Amino acid sequence: MKAAILVFPGSNCDRDLQTAFEKAGADVTMVWHKDNALPAGTDIVGVPGGFSYGDYLRCGAIAANSPICGSLREHVARGGYALGICNGFQILTETRILPGALLRNADLKYLCKTVSLQVKTSDSDFTRAWNAGTELRIPIAHHEGNYRADAELMKQLEAEDRIAFTYNDNPNGSAGNVAGVLSENRRVLGMMPHPERAADEVLGGTDGRAMFTSLMNALVSA
């Protein structure tokens, strides 16, 4: 599996994501935001957490217009995989690769803690290692994690089984307790919690590790 991790000014989870992918067996390349192309043969693009471009304008808005995001859009349009975590999820909504928007947390406070999630669907290569209903403990670290979608979009996401994760105790006010959503072809996942920070015993938990091994298994067998 070949993974490309995008790096923006202000990214701070790129190395964490690199380690999680490498421990799952991936060959990882770090790709700078000013590059115009992804490495040949890229299977999955990781869009990491952090504060791309200092979170000016809106979180992810400037990053969404960087040169490398043109290649990200092309990669996804070809059916390639992408995983956006925290700021990466914000970038995926700003590029319109994923629907909805991420706004300020309901209490307007930055949140940094481990939360309880529920796996809502096992029908994706990101979540296939778990049964629907499985509970996970995954860290969050965000100020703008309040997922917003109108009633029509929420109905569509639910009908198409595209809500990947929900919060058990909604920390940020997200519509429908949404913590992560899938694209229509189920090959793009955006989520606010950080599975890469729960992928090794030394980090205090391993509930996020199965996501990376599941992706590895899917791509190796494809």
Structure description:
With 222 residues, the chain is of the alpha/beta class. The chain has a single domain, classed as Class I glutamine amidotransferase (GATase) domain (Rossmann fold), CATH 3.40.50.880. It has five helices and eleven strands, in the order E-H-E-E-H-E-H-E-E-E-E-H-E-E-E-H. The protein has helices at residues 14-23, 67-77, 87-94, 151-159, 209-221; strands at 2-7, 27-32, 44-47, 81-85, 101-103, 111-119, 135-142, 146-148, 163-167, 178-182, 188-191. The chain has a nine-stranded mixed sheet, with helices on both faces. A two-stranded antiparallel ribbon has the order 5-8. The longest helix is centred in the C-terminal third of the chain and has 13 residues, at 209-221.
Structure characteristics:
single chain; alpha/beta; Rossmann fold; nine-stranded mixed sheet; two-stranded antiparallel ribbon; 11 strands; 23% helix; EC 3.5.1.2; Phosphoribosylformylglycinamidine synthase subunit PurQ; ligase; nucleotide-binding; purine biosynthesis
